[in-house]
Amino acid sequence: MKNEMTLSFLAIEQNEALARMALTCFIAPLDPTLDELSEFKTIVSEAVTNAIIHGYECDGKSMVKVHATIDDRSVKMTVTDEGMGIFDIEQAMEPMFTTKPQMERSGMGFTIMESFSDGIRVDSTLGNGTIVTFEKNFSPVTEVSRMR
Question: pTM of the prediction?
Answer without folding.
Answer: 0.86
